[in-house]
Amino acid sequence: MIRLITKSTNNINLNYMSFLKWILLTSFCIWFLSFSNIYAASLEPANFPSLISSLKVDTPIEFCGEEVPIKRQEIRERLEKELLLSLWDRPQVILWLKRSSRYLPHIEQMLKKNGMPDDLKYVAIAESAFRPHAGSSKGAMGFWQFMVGTGRKYGLVINEDIDERRNIFASTAAAIQYFKELHKKFRSWTLAAAAYNMGEEGLMSEILEQDTGDYYNLYLPLETQRYIFRVLSVKLILYDPEKYGFNLTEKDYYPPLTFDQVQVKCLQETPIRVIAQAGKTHFKVIKDLNPEIRGYYITKGNHNILIPKGASKGFQARYQGYVEKFFVAQKERVYIVKKGDNLSSIAERFGIPLVTLIIWNRIDIKRPIHPGDRLIIYTNK
């Protein structure tokens, strides 16, 4: 009898707990729905054209003044595919648009000055989305995705200290020269862009083998078959973003790239932080304005450096003062490596991170230090 009562009591407790869970779950759902409605009401409604309607291209399309044969079913399908893929990644397109006000005016000006087609500016977006540090698994880098060999061929400095593929002005100048040569060789901007993607020798081989110089009739590597259409999708969206549901106001775009350019004379390797101090700014600002500079130092020689707008007034005087102060401090803070020392023990002794010691002294961690080596320690501890 006692066992039966216990069992009945347990059933009551279980039912009570289930009832409480139901009450809590119902309350949470009601609260969540109310919160969602309030929050959703404060957001801009998602009001943009359907993907199907976005594919309707009724007007003729050109690339650099060369007609795209979209009346051909195969060509229309290839264009629609790239346009769909671009529109599907709406956050990326928004970033294209927002960054365009920062970089496009400079590219457009350089193209116009050199008598080049304005449509080539869309190649930079398709290549890097206007990211200076964009890189590929094959080794391409920067705004125009130059390989090392090609970049150097067209005048870019690329070494362990400087990589001008990341500089919008230097890399655009190199891209213009490259496109000029490609157009001279292939007599078509469409083929020039295809060669830019796959290499001129590879494209020329396919033209000779397939006996046609029409890009749209060539069977090329799949990436190159898509390439022109990817660039065209960028052109269509940036030419009329509202048509595709991207209704940005003037305030939505990023501020234009503004700066002062100064010439910096370095008698020896000079820390970027010294340039930043002279420019009344921070290390990060100098690196962002000059993404081609690698590491923490400016190499010996003369350099044209971008600094914040308005900071050039009095820059040279400030720079000389900070440089002299830096070199005096450097001479006063030399540590002579002793027997039994290693980098970790030296860093610990002076209370600094090991990485900081490596940066200050440009140390190759693969090479051991030896007694008598001189290290710079910028600390009073």
Q: Quickly give the structural class.
A: mainly alpha
Spell the H/E element sequence.
Answer: HHEEHHHHHHHHEEHHEEHEHHE
Q: How many strands in all?
A: 8
Terminal CA distance:
81 Å
Please give the count of helices: 15
* CATH structural architecture of the largest domain: Orthogonal Bundle
Summed over residues and divided by their number, the pLDDT gives a mean of 86
Strand arrangement, major sheet: 1-2
What fraction of residues sit in β-strands? 5-15%
Tally of structural domains: 3
State Rg: 30 Å
How would you sum up the major sheet?
Answer: 2 strands, antiparallel
> What general outline do the C-alpha atoms trace?
globular
Write the CATH fold name of the largest domain: Lysozyme
Spans where pLDDT lies below 50 across 5 or more residues: 1-8, 38-43
CATH class assignment of the largest domain = Mainly Alpha
- The helix fraction, in percent, is 40-55%
Element layout with pairings:
Layout: H1 2-42, H2 51-54, E1 61-63, E2 66-68, H3 73-88, H4 90-113, H5 121-128, H6 148-153, H7 168-186, H8 189-198, H9 200-210, H10 222-239, E3 260-266, E4 270-271, H11 272-278, H12 283-289, E5 297-298, E6 301-307, H13 315-332, E7 334-336, H14 343-349, H15 354-361, E8 374-376
